C-alpha cells in the first residue's frame, strides 16, 4: 500500500467515530429529548412508548435518509467528474441546474398553467399541491440533460 493510500485509509478510519457521534447527536436532538443511554439500550427496550416512537418512526428514518442522500450525492458527483474527466465538473456544466431553475420558476410564476393536464385529474392534483415545485425542478433537470 502506498503512502498516499495509507493516509486516505487512516483518514477514513479516523472519521468513523465522528460519524457515529454525529449520528447519535442527530438521534438525540429534537423537540423531545431522548437520552443517549436510551439510544444505547434501544435494541432491548426504550424507556416509554414516546421515546420508542420518536426513535423508530421519526428520527431513525430521518438519519438513514440523510445518510443515503449524502451517499447518493457523492456518487453522482464522482460519476459526473469521472464521465467528463474534469475534477471541477458540476451539474451546471451540462445545464441540469439551469433546466431545473427554469422549470421551477415557470411553475412558481405561471402556477402550472403551462403544464398540459391532458393526463387527467391526477396530474392536475399533483401540480396543485406542495409537490409541484420540486417535481417541476426534477422534470426540468431531466429535460435539460
From TrEMBL:
One of its GO terms (biological process) is siderophore-iron import into cell. GO terms for cellular component: plasma membrane. InterPro entries: ABC_BtuC-like, ABC_transptr_permease_BtuC. It is a multi-pass membrane protein. It is found in: Cell membrane. It comes from the Bacteria. GO terms for molecular function: transmembrane transporter activity. SUPFAM superfamilies: ABC transporter involved in vitamin B12 uptake, BtuC. Its main location: membrane. This is Iron complex transport system permease protein.
Amino acid at each position: 500500500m502506498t503512502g498516499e493510500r495509507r493516509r486516505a485509509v487512516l483518514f477514513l478510519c479516523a472519521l468513523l467515530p465522528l460519524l457515529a457521534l454525529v449520528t447519535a447527536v442527530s438521534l438525540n436532538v429534537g423537540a423531545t429529548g431522548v437520552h443517549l443511554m436510551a439510544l444505547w439500550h434501544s435494541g432491548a427496550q426504550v424507556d416509554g412508548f414516546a421515546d420508542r416512537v420518536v426513535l423508530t418512526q421519526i428520527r431513525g428514518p430521518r438519519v438513514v435518509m440523510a445518510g443515503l442522500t449524502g451517499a447518493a450525492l457523492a456518487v453522482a458527483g464522482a460519476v459526473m467528474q469521472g464521465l467528463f474527466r474534469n475534477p471541477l465538473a458540476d451539474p451546471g456544466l451540462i445545464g441540469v441546474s439551469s433546466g431545473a431553475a427554469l422549470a421551477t420558476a415557470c411553475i412558481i410564476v405561471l402556477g402550472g398553467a403551462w403544464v398540459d393536464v391532458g393526463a387527467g385529474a391526477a396530474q392536475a392534483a399533483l401540480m396543485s399541491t406542495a409537490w409541484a415545485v420540486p417535481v417541476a425542478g426534477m422534470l426540468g433537470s431531466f429535460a435539460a440533460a
